[in-house]
């Protein structure tokens, strides 16, 4: 989609992607401003130092481009709309995706509202994604760099948010982004990509979560109920997890590693199975809730589509059967491993992201669930 020449505020995070997004918009002749968002506050001095270092990188980019840089604190909105929702999910034994909530509520709502107060008509970020279609029927498109595509994390955006969004990196690959940043004189051209959860950063997840959730130890059991060890609290584990179980080898068992299969909230038991490809970890279907369709309405009939249940997973053929406006059953052509309640399933039609929902539970046709088949 051709970008109109108007006033755009770019979210400058201090990273190379948002820096090049701003560069491209300046080169296209737009009226560009930068905005550095602070979304988290705590007493961790390392985190504060990291935030200040990121702001310094954003400042260097803005100064190099000759654009103003604003600074805003969305920590209160983030805690209320993202973090508290995530804590509730963890308490319920589920594994939420805070990055999806952050995009929906902070980066494309609170940020957009603030940008409009600055006089902007649109906002831009360094996400690897694209926007197509016409006003009122916008589409979210996969990026040219399939390894960096971030539509999985953006699937919950609505028509109004997409109408105001600009993704300048849609057609670029990461190597080209770094090359452009180096040529522009950006000090962050070789800055490593962030790999941490958005509100945690590069810190130890269990240690961080333990500040806000009580540790409630209980037994780790195998699928037959035999006790193998003790867990720290169900909130600190997710389906498919291998690390951190501390079960070690057992003379009476094979040497294969253990993986989390399920959580028994009533009995406070963590259920594990042995082996990466244990049949219990596989499921052919799932039930999804909070389903969001980018078009604004669910399909009128079962939809043959592609889906992924985690970021960067190869797209999987499936059939989506809507159940009202915000629920759906998803049946996969091939069984999927480690479907984690609370994580997201996201739907695609080739290059278009259609929307997605939250995995409510995995379904097992062999246990009585209908097998609708996939064409």
UniProtKB/TrEMBL annotation:
Tree of life domain: Bacteria
> Boundaries of each tRNA-specific 2-thiouridylase MnmA-like C-terminal domain copy?
286-359
InterPro entries tied to this protein: MnmA-like, MnmA-like_C, MnmA-like_central, MnmA-like_central_sf, Rossmann-like_a/b/a_fold
Record site: Interaction with tRNA: 127, 343
UniProt keyword Thylakoid, yes or no: no
Q: Which GO terms describe its cellular component?
A: cytoplasm
The portions of this protein that span the membrane are none
Q: Which reaction does it catalyse?
A: S-sulfanyl-L-cysteinyl-[protein] + uridine(34) in tRNA + AH2 + ATP = 2-thiouridine(34) in tRNA + L-cysteinyl-[protein] + A + AMP + diphosphate + H(+)
Q: Does the keyword tRNA-binding apply?
A: yes
Q: Which GO terms describe its molecular function?
A: ATP binding; tRNA binding; tRNA-uridine 2-sulfurtransferase activity
**Domain tRNA-specific 2-thiouridylase MnmA-like central, first and last residues per copy:** 207-274
Region annotation (Interaction with tRNA) ranges: 148-150
Q: Which GO terms describe its biological process?
A: tRNA wobble position uridine thiolation
Q: Where does ATP bind?
A: 11-18, 37, 126
Supply the alphabetized keyword list.
ATP-binding, Cytoplasm, Disulfide bond, Nucleotide-binding, RNA-binding, Transferase, tRNA processing, tRNA-binding
Q: Which PANTHER family match?
A: MITOCHONDRIAL TRNA-SPECIFIC 2-THIOURIDYLASE 1, TRNA 5-METHYLAMINOMETHYL-2-THIOURIDYLATE -METHYLTRANSFERASE
Q: Which family does it belong to?
A: Belongs to the MnmA/TRMU family.
Functionally, this protein is described as follows:
Catalyzes the 2-thiolation of uridine at the wobble position (U34) of tRNA, leading to the formation of s(2)U34.
**What is the name of this protein?**
tRNA-specific 2-thiouridylase MnmA
Give me the gene this protein comes from.
Answer: mnmA
